[in-house]
Amino acid sequence: MTERYWGYTGRILRVDLTSGAISTEPLDLELAHKFVGGRGLGAKLLFDNLSPGTDPMSPENVLVFITGPLVGLPFFGAKHVVLTKSPLTGGFLDSYCGGHFASELKFAGFDGIIITGQAPEPCYLWVHNGKAELREAGDIWGKGCMQAEDMLKAAVKDERARVAVIGPAAENLVKFTHISTDYYHSCGRGGAGAVMGAKRLKAVVVRGAHSIRYADAGALCKFVCEEIEQRVLSDPNIANVVKYGKPLTMDYTNELGFCPTRNFQEGYFEAYTEIDGPAMRRKVVESDRGCFACNLPCGKFSRVKDGAFAGVCLVGPEYETNCLLGSNCGISYMEAIVQSNYLCDDLGLDVISAGNVIAFAMECYERGILTREDVGGLDLRFGNYRAVHEMIRMIAHRRGIGNLLAEGVKAAAQAIGHNCSDFAIQGKGLEFPGYDPRGVTGMALQYAVSDRGACHRRASPIRLERGMKRFTHEGRAQKFKELSDERIPMHCASMCDTVGGRYAKLTQKDFAFLFSAATGLDFSAEDIADLCDRVATLCLCFNLREGAPFTRQDNLSFWPRRMLEEPVPAGPAKGQVVSIPQLSIMLDEYYQLRGWDVKTGIPTRKTMARLRLEEEARQLAQVINVPEGD
Q: Which of 194, 186, 198 is nearest to 87 (CA)?
């Protein structure tokens, strides 16, 4: 490593699974200055290395593991990002994971890994102290994530190695599978695990002892110790966040009436206090857990104390699990939700999509569209947690109806027919998470314009509504862009957005300082503002180049009928639907703020030139008409 790579290792690992070739290449500092790391640099590497029109499940798809320049510092937490072309949406996918893998990858000597091809036999990648090798994984293939991680640590003879591993569901090419790390963390959304399974890559294992140098480590530490600590500790809610973690969200979504209940038929779950943060703390939580260098341990280590699931333990569940595998399936038995979470973690399923798909099947069953024989003899009514557990296994192993549900709720509804798409709750192929947009207007905009489908992580969904007049478009586009532009630098830094956004309240000026002090490159607040527009525009360009449904017309037309024509039946959001006229106004305003064409939602040539995305504009022009701009 040379001194010019402050904040980075300066090396990208490239692996061709087909030939077994492994090489390293230097990090391009010009790209690092334009895209920083994480979502930004990862999206650029994906865009440049993927041939347009590639099938997501083919050997030609690209899998990128990437970190950022703040990863490895003793604060903020650390995340790695996995980017690929999604099997669910056919478009851009970035999926994030906490824990210790990201920092360990940098300690092993690499900022990221680009993986292509398909191995002839199951294998794993062992990365250690600047070296890498592919090893056979035949005896590990078929094992659950928990056992596989144990076996991989034994294979490399290092209990402190960090593992990113897939489970049987990904090996079976279930399209909403995750990549698990540290047993209980996962890159969950969009099916990155299935891409890894299609490549016959069971795991990436990393271990290292390299140090990372920073341009001004003293200034970084001073900023954290004096500025960030004061901001975080001054937040009046910080004690509750540490005590209860993200399941606290359950109280808020029910209070405002947008908690998905029984396949999004309702927005209020009558038994939510049995599965919220205080209930979890009382029933199953044993201790608090944090990711690498985390100063806000929001993870909850939980263990079932008695009953049928006694002894089951994990870090979690989080809000999305309690919602999608709890209220959305009509289940208020906390210990059963822990078991559902464990099964998904071990088999390798995204808990959000799994809960969404199973709730859809439950409604089909209760409507008589699916019979008891169709669902393998299960009594698949809402509230039957044992049926949910068996359905998780059936999906993971593609048994019976599970083989169809493994394709995702959009494909399953199309195959079943009977107008099931009306209540298959997805956006562009990605299942809705735990926020019903009928009850939270800003979420409708977020689901519409998010570059990975119906995603809740591009801006804080709760903060979109707090302090604003409800059920109106007014101010939503401006607020969404502000919160989105708050998240993009955090995603490029590969840091925890819970700490950095809501509690540390990092600004674009703060990020200019942090990136400059870490890397020695010169960043201004204006550079960070451009970074936000550049990354958002690049990700949209990827989707448009791939022919994924992300134009303005797509953003208005993908909605399942339930969201548009079935008002919330009761609770604080009673009578609300997603309003297409309101959404259209929000799209107008958002596109103007981003510099995208209002009529089409396509980035203009003028905007892409300003953002130095000339090559992206050239490629986009080969497949779609790119407006000039004013």
A: 194
pTM for this prediction: 0.95
User: Tens digit of pLDDT for each residue in 65-81?
Assistant: 999 999 988 777 789 99
3-state secondary structure at position 15: strand
- In the chain, % of residues over pLDDT 90: 84
Question: Could you read off the pLDDT of 372-397 as tens digits, one per residue?
Answer: 999 999 999 999 999 999 999 999 99
Q: Class of 441-621 per CATH? A: mainly alpha
CATH of the structural domain 3-207, one choice from 3.40.50.880, 1.20.1290.10, 3.60.9.10, 1.10.10.10: 3.60.9.10
- What is the Cα–Cα distance from 601 to 587, expressed in whole angstroms? 8
Q: Span 239-424: which CATH code?
A: 1.10.569.10
Reply yes or no on whether the pLDDT at 2 is more than 60.
no
CA dist., res. 154 & res. 176, Å (int): 29
CA–CA dist 143, 192 (Å, integer):
18
Q: What gap in Å lies between CA 588 and CA 116, rounded to an integer?
A: 39
Q: Which two tokens stand for residue 274?
A: 């049995």
For the chain, helix, strand, coil in percent to 5 are 45, 15, 45
Return phi, psi of residue 131, to 5°.
-120, 165
Per-residue tokens: 434: 């735990």
* Rounded Cα gap, residues 519 and 508, in angstroms: 16
> What are the tokens at 319?
């809000």
